[in-house]
Amino acid sequence: MAELIVKFRYERGTADTGRLDLYDASVALGGIARATSIVTHAYLNGEVRTHGDAAHGADFYINTPKRGSFIYEAVIFSAGAISSGIFYDFVKYAFNEAVGKTSQNEAHSRALLKRIEPTIAELPAALESPLSDVHRPIRKEPVILLNVTRPRGELLASFDSRTALYLLPQTIPAPHQIFGNVTKYNNLTGWGRFFDRLENKTISFNVSLKSSEDQKEMITWSQHENNLGREGLLYFQADAVVSANGEIKRYIVKNVSRHPI
Q1: CA atoms in the 13 A half-sphere facing the CB of 63
Q2: Which is it for strands 248-257 and 201-207: parallel, antiparallel or unpaired?
Q3: What is the pLDDT of residue 53?
Q4: What parts of the chain have a pLDDT lower than 70?
Q5: Model-level pTM?
Q6: What are the Cα distances from residue 147, in Å, to 7, 8, 259?
Q7: What burial class does residue 180 get, using C-beta atoms within 10 Å of its C-beta: 0-12 exposed, 13-18 middle, 19+ buried?
Q8: Distance of alpha carbon 150 from alpha carbon 205, whole angstroms
C-alpha cells in the first residue's frame, strides 16, 4: 500500500510558538481533510467529488502536529500503485490553480496533463471552499504564512493573506461582452476553458448539462475549430465569478451564440 505525506506548515506570528487558536485550527484541519480528499480522488479517479469524505481508493490520517511552527501532516494510503512524483505535481497544480497562481504558459509533462484533463476547470472551483477553511488562521492573523510541502520540504504551494482574499469570490453580471473561442471542454461535466478576446486570456467556464443540444454543439464546434487553428468565434451570456480584487475567475454560462448577444 502506497503512503504519501503532504505537510501543512503554518509559520510566523502565533504559529511560531507551536500554537494556533483552537477554533481556527479545527476549521483549518477540516479544510485540510476536505482539500486533500478532493484532490486525491480527482487524481485517482479522474472526477471531482465535492464531499471531502467521499474519496475512492485511498484512506486518510493526520499525524500529531509538530512543534517549531505549527505543522499538520496529512497521510494518504492508496491501495493501488501510485507515482509519487506525478501525484505531488498534481497537488501542486491543483492548489496553485485554485488560488490563481498558475501561469497559462506553464508546461506540464504528458503524464501530469493526462491527470489534469478530466477535471480541468472543475477541480479549482471545488477546492475553493476547503482551501478557504485552510486559510482560517491567516484571516485571524494575516502575518501567518502557510507552506504546503512534500515530506522533505519541497514546496508545493504557499498561502498568505493575498490568497485568502482570492478565495472569497462573488458572482456578478459579466462586466463586458464575452466573445472568443473554446480551448478545452468536457461534455461530461460542462466545464471548460475559453479564450476571452477582451480579457486577452483564457478563463474557465461552466455550462449547465441541461443546456440545449444546440448550445453544447456550438461549444464543441468552437473547440474543434480552435484545434484546427481557425477562429471558432462564440459569444457567451454569463455571470462572472470574481475575486475580491475584481479578477474574473470563471464564467457561469447562461446562453451561447455565434452572433453577438
Answers
A1: 18
A2: parallel
A3: 60
A4: 1, 51-54, 64-68, 103-105
A5: 0.89
A6: 8, 6, 46
A7: buried
A8: 31
